Each structure stands twice: as structure tokens, then as C-alpha cells.
Amino acid sequence: MTEEQLWRQLKAGQKSALEQLYRSHAEALLLYGHKFSADTQLVEDAVQDLFLELWQNREKAAQASSVRAYLLVALRRRIIRRMERQLRRESTEEAGENLFEVEISIDEQIAARELSAERRVQLNHALRELSNRQKEALYLKYQLNLNYEDICAVMDINYQSARNLVASALKRLKELMAGSWWPLFFIFSAFK
Amino acid sequence: MNDRYLTYDAINLAQDEEFLRWVREEDNAQATEWEAWLAAHPEKAEPVAEARLLARALRFREEKPAPEQIEALWARIHAATPARENRRPLRVVRWVSIAAAAAIALLLAFFFLFPGPGETVQVRAQRGETLEHALPDGSRVQLNAGSSLTYDAAQWTDNRRLRLSGEAFFEVEKGNRFVVETERGSVEVLGTSFNVNTHDGQFRVECYSGRVGVSSGPAEEVLEPGQSVALMDGSLKKARFDTLSGASWRQGRFEYEDKPLALVFAELERQFDISIEAADSIRQRRYTGFFERNSLDSALYLVCWPMQLESTVKGQKIQIGPAEGTN
After folding, report:
1. Full-model pTM
2. Most buried of A153, A166, B166, B267 (most Cβ within 10 A)?
């Protein structure tokens, strides 16, 4: 069944559609949510909240172009709102927008095949230095396979900013990978 | 293949959706096209190889949630999202409604649907009202607020079967079997009195007299007077209850023992036709106490005060949060 059909069934009040949506997206939502907060309870509450509201307002729910992006946006807002509320109570620190904790590294196999030990250290260091916004954009693009239109919606930024976040990270990555590996890789892939 | 790729470097390629579909091996047609294009433009081999590597190089360290965590969370969502009954179109010849406004600012509306042959009857207690309905054989039903029942009046003598959504108290005349079907299970009796509650994801049956058979999926239980059964995690859990204080909603009193506030709020919303806003952390807290239907203010006070909560009324919306001076 396509996502569009599923969405229509949801709007028609079919509980099974809600369950199917949950089952297809729960893992990605929980994983994504955890990048903003290590508090499992908070993330779970936000996911629960999201699906309750989706159910209650299903008749009004707009036809989403990408269901996953729709759910990610809604979850992101909820988590940030909850954290702001918590922070207001506990400290004066600014919450939210710049959070996104994830450790990014170079794939072990690729690194072992293509890179010297020194380059690997440099690369992983460079990846740690990326801003949280860059990390989030990379995560949405290469882990959750979102297109730029959806990334803009989720991160609430314009198209150019989304591209810039990803491109600048890729550029740094490419510089550090340059030279040592590409002819090898090309030969490898040509005879694969 | 689009000419724009001739101007693309590795960075551009690694961000291109079509290119990425090829790299992810999602689309075989795409793969053939790309390979042909690459053969025609051998100078593009380097940026393509680089872009493939860039697109596949990143690893994000994360721990996938356990299947049990996903299941447990679904159970919470499932319990809090009652499936609304799909209303079948009614074929009713005519209906008469008698509305009585009570002195306590409570509107009780009685809908009596006079059916012709083969008629589906639907009786509905709106939010903020309860109503009593006489079935064709003289059995009586009291419907709690925001509940409805449907049956075929023409078939009633042969087949005493009705569908309930919400909560109702039944006093059944002796006769052949009498079946109450709900979303989560069914109740079968001969002649008896019992209460069925399916609000907010529950399925709870209390037997007041006679014997009551309850089934939900493969699970079955027979109840004697003073016994109740509730559906928990797919199985029926039997317990005892006090028949004198049970189903007190019929007297406009709602009692709770160690129940999540979410349930209490949902009942307040139905009884007073309001909508309550409260944080999930509050909804999950457990409440022991009661409220009565005669006054919204005192009901809110009775629920909020012992929990150190406070309510603010804004038209039809009520916000409940921590009381001032606490926390």
C-alpha cells in the first residue's frame, strides 16, 4: 500500500492505518528524537503525543507530501518545546535549535580499504568538528534518505541553507579523502 | 540522462537524488542508465567514484530501540486512541426527541427512535448528557455521556444483540440470550444487570445480578454478581467489586481508585462537554478520589486539589497544570 493510500485510510478513521504508520516510522522517530535529548521518557512521550494528535486531528491533517518528513517535523517541534519547558524550569540556558548529538565516523570497511591510519584519524576528527546543524543535515540526507525539500521542512531552513550545510561537510570530507584512494576505488568498482 | 550531470563535480553528484538512488541500489533502471552515461563520458569516472564513496562513507552511531520498546509505546498509543465507531447510515422513518433541561444546568436529551421493519436503531448520549433507553423487550439501558448503541429493532425478539461504544448499564428482562458487542469483546447474558465500559481503550464489565459471560478474542470468563472483569494486555482479569457503590455514574458520581488522570480527564470532558489541556506527565499520574456531575467547578477542584494541580477555565477549554506555590 502506498503512503498516500495509508494517509487516506487514516483520515477515514481506520485505526489500522495509524498502527501501520507507527510501525513503519517508530524506529526512525525514536532514533531521530534521541539526537535532541538523551531522556528516553521525554522522547517516548513526544512520539506518543505526536500519534495521539495525529489521530485526534486526522480529519484536519493536511495531505503530506512525505509522511516521514511530516512526522519528523512534528516530533522535532514537540521535543524542542518540551525541552524548552524543562530548561525554563531548571536553568536559563537556551534550548533547542542547535542541539543534535550524534557521533559520525567513516565506514570501517571503506576506511580500511581506502585510507591510511593517519587520514582516518584526521577524518574522524573533522567529522567531530562539524556543527550540530551540519550533522543533522547529513543525518537526514544520508541516514534517513530525505531529499532537500523534506530537509528544509524538517529543519525549518531554506533550500540554499540546507544544501550549504551538506555541501560544506562533503567538501571537507573530500579534501581529507583526496589523492590517496580514488583510482583504487574506481578500479574496484569497475570490476565489481 | 540529463545533461546537467556533465557540469557536476563529486560534491554535486553526492547530493543528487537520482544519483543517490543509484548508489543505494534502489532502482535497476537507474543503474543501467548511469552505467551507459558513464561509458559515454569516461572523464566523469573520477567524480562519480568520489561521489559514490562520499555518499556511502558516513556512519552514524546509534542504538536501535528494542522491539519491546516499540511495542510498549504502541500499547500506550493504542490505549489512548479509541477507534470511533463508524456510524452506519440510519434508515429511520421518524424520530422524536424530548429534551429536558434540569435545574443543575444539565441537559438530558432522550432520543426515542420508532422503527419500522428491518430498522437499525441508534441511540446516542451526547457529551454532557446521560440517557435511558427502553429496548423492545422492556430491557433497560442507561447510556453514559459520549456513548452510543445500535441494534436492529425488527430482529430484536429473535436476536437480542446490540453494539455498544462507550459505557452503559443494562437491566435485562429474562428471555433468550442477550448479547452486547463492543470493539474489544462481547458480553452475553440471559437475564441480569451489568455495566459495560469501553471508554478510552478500556473493556470492563461488572455483573450486578444473574450471570454474565464475557469474551474478548479467545479469552472467556463467566461473572457472578459482585465480580468484574477487565481486559489487560489481551487477557481478561477478574476481580471483585462492591455492587452498592459500582456504576455510580448512574447517580452522577464518578469514583476512581489508583487510575491515571488521563482516564479521569476523559470522563470530565464527556460529562461536562469540555476539553482539557494538560501535560502528559500530569496525565500519567494516578488519582484516587471522586467527582460529581452537578458542578464543573467543584468537580475540577476535587480532581485537582489532592494532586496539587490547578485549573484555569478559558471558555470551553480548561488548562490543568501544577498549582501555584508548588514546584
Report:
1. 0.52
2. B267
CATH of B94-240, one of 3.40.920.10, 3.40.50.300, 3.30.70.260, 2.60.120.1440: 2.60.120.1440
**Domains (range + CATH), chain A:** 3-90 (1.10.1740.10), 108-190 (1.10.10.10)
Tell me which of B22, B63, B73 to substitute to probe the interface with A (most A C-beta atoms closer than 10 Å).
Answer: B73
- For B55, nearest residue in chain A (alpha carbons): A142
DSSP B73-129: HHHHHHHHSPPPP-PPPP--SEEEEEEEE-TTS-EEEEEEEE--TT-EEEEEEPTT-
**Quick check: A106 and B46 CB within 8 A?**
no
pLDDT of residue B278 exceeding 60, the answer is yes
Summarize the confidence of residues A142-168 as an average pLDDT: 92
**Residue B112's pLDDT band (cuts 50, 70, 90):** very low
A138 close contact with B: CB closer than 8 A: yes
Which pLDDT does position A124 carry in this prediction? Answer: 86
- Name every chain B residue with its beta carbon within 8 A of the beta carbon of A141: 15
Place of cell 569497475: A190
Question: Any CB–CB contact under 8 A between A114 and chain B?
Answer: yes
Q: Predicted ipTM?
A: 0.85
Residue ranges covered by each domain of chain B: 3-57, 94-240, 252-322
Q: How far is B44 from chain A (nearest CA, A)?
A: 11
Q: Do A107 and B78 touch (CB under 8 A)?
A: no
Name the residue in chain A with its Cα closest to that of B63: A31
CATH code reported for the domain at B252-322: 3.55.50.30
More reliable by pLDDT, B171 or A188? B171
A108-149 residue pLDDT tens: 888 887 778 888 888 888 898 899 999 999 999 999 999 999
Do residues B290 and B305 touch, judged by C-beta distance below 8 A? no
Retrieve residue A79's grid coordinates: 521535543
* Integer Cα distance of B38 and B58 in angstroms: 24
A46: nearest CA partner in chain B: B280
Cβ pair B52:A22 closer than 8 A: no
